[in-house]
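Throughout our pipeline, every protein is held as a single compact record rather than as scattered files. Nothing more is needed to write down the fold, since each code stands for a local backbone conformation. The record that follows is passed on verbatim for readers who wish to inspect the format.
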Amino acid sequence: MAINQKQVLSLQQKLSPQQIQMIKLLELPAVQLEQRIKQEIEDNIVLEEEERSSEDDEQPQQISVDEYLHDDDTPSYKSRINNFSKDDKQRPVYLTEGRSLQEYLIEQLRYRNLSERDMRLAVYLVGSIDEDGYLRRDLESVADDIAFTVGVETTAAELERLLNVIHELEPAGIGARDLRECLLLQMAQMPINTRPRRLARKILTNYFDEFVKKHYEKLMARLQISEDDFRDAIAEIRHLSPKPGNLYAEGGTDTTPYIIPDFILDYQDGRFTLSLNSYNVPEVRVNRRYMEMIREMVGSDGRVRDKDKEAIQFVKSKIDSAKWFISAIKQRHDTLMRTMQTILDYQEEYFKDGDKSKLRPMILKDIADRTGLDVSTISRVVNSKYVQTQFGIILLKSLFSEAMQTDSGEEVSSYEIKNILQECIDEEDKRRPLTDETLMDILNSKGYRIARRTVAKYREMLGIPVARLRKQI
């Protein structure tokens, strides 16, 4: 084939480095933004943290003790105390955490007189137990991992024997592979000296599936027991813990998530005050020393020596990157404030007292149309962002809800329907819980046009099980 040239006109859309950086910064919540800025300061030599100027940083006025003693006849040496000699060294205070669950289990294993091989395998099994106290991997896979990582050939039967040893440790139920085994292990460490406990163990051993599915009438018929006896047995089972790992706590690492709000909203005297939470976010600037360095390298005639060209090019690229980063942070601040202010204007009645019934139906497009921003930008802004209000810290994403239409044509938020569902289920007869179809009829009678599948969707969003699993005796 002949080689020829031709001119082609094409239209392509590309994001600039600054746009990419802005998109990434926009998604970050306050905590991650602080880490991202500190990382950029470490990577870019021309960026530096700007010191905050505050009146609170001023040194407190030094007050002499003599001012309080000038009218007293107490000798000056009695106003001083020194219990240390000049040879004493100040000793640091060490803060230690308590043992973790795995360390606690390994300590118990040391009292079991296991061989060196069994101890290594048992320690590996303990390391495979998750924070809930379960061993959720099959023993064949654990045996393969031990062969690759530890270099010890073992079998599932040998691991089963060592797992039985772990099952005898505290807390009760540790190392179970499923809920049924967990509950039975806890009962095995209890004295079975009452009729309800004997019935509870029999239910967990022989009728666990029926118990989980709450087929209570079928269970009572098979066990040939009265409703009172069955209720006592169920009470014994409910005293057991489904997560044995939570039964142990000795000052270990705290896994409770801390939420740092991105916005602070104050409401006083009928007026809102909105601000961006930037307390821990460092302020950055370009180090002037590098700007002066470039000026020194450039001669009075504007020419650069050959040996300085590479250095100037390097510093200039770092300065440009720093300016882009600072500009992206400023643009992030403006976009977040602009979006949050629009949400505040849209849901003003809700933010006054936090009554969810006052939430207006709102989707991302509503805010995008009012701000002039793209829907994807609004989605990035509200993702993982929180606002602190006088009635609590609110996830921005939770403020968005679908619109439902009533018989009168009025649009209401889906939160209103969820509240009615919650009230209906809270007030239902637990012996005969309301089905989704019955809930649909109740909502339709109140003027809400809703289908049964929509009722099921909202019920699942509220974390409420189906009617059969809500049944109680």
